[in-house]
Write a structure and sequence with these properties.
The structure holds two protein chains of two kinds. By secondary structure, chain A is of the alpha/beta class. In chain A, 22% of the residues lie in helices and 28% in strands. Chain B contains four helices and five strands, in the order E-E-H-E-H-E-H-E-H. Chain B has helices spanning 35-51, 68-81, 95-103, 116-136, and strands spanning 5-10, 21-28, 56-59, 88-91, 112-113. In chain B, strands 1-2-3-4-5 form a five-stranded mixed β-sheet, with helices on both faces. In chain B, helix 1 (35-51) runs parallel beside helix 2. Classes of the chains: A alpha/beta, B alpha/beta. Chain A binds chain B through residues 30-32, 263-267, 276, 278, 281-287, 289-292, and chain B through 65-68, 70-71, 94-96, 98-100, 102-105.
Chain lengths: 338, 137
């Protein structure tokens, strides 16, 4: 039976919904809207897509289709129907909203044994965004199936996952994942050189001699840390950031291309450009008007959609799926060779 | 008195302790002032901190968020009271302000409260603790 795989990167408008599902009270309680983290934002230098690609490769697949999610489920349905027409009899759909150390072969086995048209993986906290669809489900998508991994129907038996999983769109779980990866509590490893126990530094990172790095900590590629700064413990400063003199970052993540001003304290939160989501106070503060932080402008070439694909897929190894209707043009499909 | 308001209440009421009166000066911190307004606010704040022997409570409840001029002024206030008897307290008024006061480390120099009511209770607690200490000795 021919198997296909699709990875859906949630579009920004979908992220709010996903976060509401994950933490309804947290969002309602916060005074400011939470920033919309992309699931492609690196975690300790790793693309969240990479572990899923490795899992899919282990299933023996040569390629996967990559797309972004949209509220327009009609497009997705037509795409699923197209898979069916192309002879795909079983389709693995992964919505990139979680990191899960899942044995997809076991999910496949469960799906075959339970004989459901759709099997959705879930853990104790709900769906993980991983589904398997049979050709029957693919053909019936127009009536029944929603691409966004809809709540499990009572008739379906979900695949209960009991391994390690974190929702990467939730700031709190994302930070937990960072801590677990830095201490070896999960399989994810920081992308860089380990300079001492539980301290990793990415290529081209520039640390002043007076910088104090307290493990477990990760400092990403090309990041500059200026004199007197303290990084760690449980800190992740991703690539192309600048941490100015005397600033302390602990139990926090600084997302790529972020500037942190001098002498400030980031204690338990996620900073994305000028936005700080504080995990203790459950609110988002804008650092920019206070002159405490901001976004470092990236080069135009790095601003493309799916730019991270360049890292692991050299030119010529991706294929755009030019499918009708034309409304789908804003929702590109890329075939990624594994 | 301008923006200031003065509150007086009996602070220490522990049995056997001397009853003493504590006064607080509460200064609302307006949001998005013009440069003239900001100059006036600065003058008033620094004056209150210089002349007041009682605790000064700066209340940001009317201010949704703080910009760099606000932060500069707060740091000036902190510097003004450093090494003096005057105590300054901040009322964040919002979680955003609270976060910004933590990020700038101002909260490690000045006690920060969620409401004026909480801030008013602070010297009272201190006074009660003093009375406890006196009783114990």
């Amino acid at each position: 039976m021919e198997l296909g795989a699709v990875v859906v990167v949630p579009a920004r408008e979908d992220l709010t919904t996903a976060m509401l599902e994950a933490q309804p009270h947290a969002l309602a309680a916060s005074e400011n809207r939470r920033p919309l983290y992309s699931s492609r934002m690196p975690i300790l230098g790793n693309d969240a897509l990479r572990p899923w690609m490795d899992c899919i490769r282990k299933l023996g697949l040569q390629s996967l289709w990559l797309t972004s999610g949209s509220r327009d489920t009609n497009v997705a349905r037509s795409a699923l129907a197209r898979f069916a027409r192309q002879g795909i009899e079983r389709l693995l759909v992964i919505k990139l909203k979680s990191y899960a150390e899942m044995d997809l072969a076991d999910l496949l086995r469960f799906h075959c044994e339970s004989r459901n048209p759709v099997t959705e993986a879930q853990d104790a906290r709900g769906q993980l965004g991983v589904c398997l669809l049979d050709h029957l489900a693919l053909q019936a998508t127009g009536e029944k199936y929603q691409f966004s991994c809809a709540p499990t129907d009572s008739g379906r038996t979900p695949y209960q996952f009991r391994g390690y999983a974190k929702r990467i769109l939730s700031a709190r779980e994302r930070q937990e994942l960072v801590g677990d990866a830095l201490t070896g509590a999960c399989a994810l490893r920081p992308l860089g050189t380990q300079i001492r126990e539980q301290v990793w530094i990415g290529d081209g990172a520039d640390l002043a001699s007076s910088v104090r790095v307290i493990g477990p900590t990760y400092i990403g590629a090309r990041t500059i840390v200026r004199a007197g700064a303290i990084i760690g413990p449980f800190a992740s400063v991703e690539h192309d950031c600048v941490v100015d003199c005397g600033t302390t970052v602990q139990r926090s993540t600084v997302l790529p291309h972020t500037y942190l001003g001098p002498g400030i304290l980031i204690r338990h939160g996620i900073v994305d450009g000028g936005q700080l989501e504080d995990l203790d106070w459950g609110t988002v503060a804008d650092l920019q008007p206070a002159g405490l932080g901001g976004r470092i402008q990236q080069h135009e070439s790095r601003r493309q959609a799916f730019s991270e694909i360049d890292v692991f897929s050299p030119p010529g190894r991706t294929t755009a799926w030019d499918f009708a209707p034309s409304s789908a043009a804003s929702q590109p499909w890329l075939q990624v060779q594994l | 008195m301008g923006l200031c308001s003065l509150l007086r209440r009996v602070a220490a009421v522990a049995p056997g302790a001397a009853v003493k009166t504590v006064a607080w000066t509460v200064l609302p911190f307006p949001c998005g002032s013009s440069s003239a307004g900001r100059r006036a606010l600065r003058k008033e704040l620094l004056k209150a901190l210089r002349v007041s022997g009682s605790p000064v409570i700066v209340d940001f409840s009317g201010c949704r968020t703080l910009n760099h001029e606000d932060i500069d002024l707060l740091l000036e206030c902190v510097a003004e009271v450093a090494g003096r008897d005057t105590q300054v307290l901040f009322v964040a008024g919002s979680r955003v302000n609270r976060v910004l006061l933590e990020v700038t480390r101002i909260s490690s120099l000045v006690p920060v409260f969620n409401s004026v009511k909480e801030a008013l209770a602070y010297p009272q607690i201190a006074a009660e603790n003093d009375a406890e200490d006196r009783r114990a000795s």
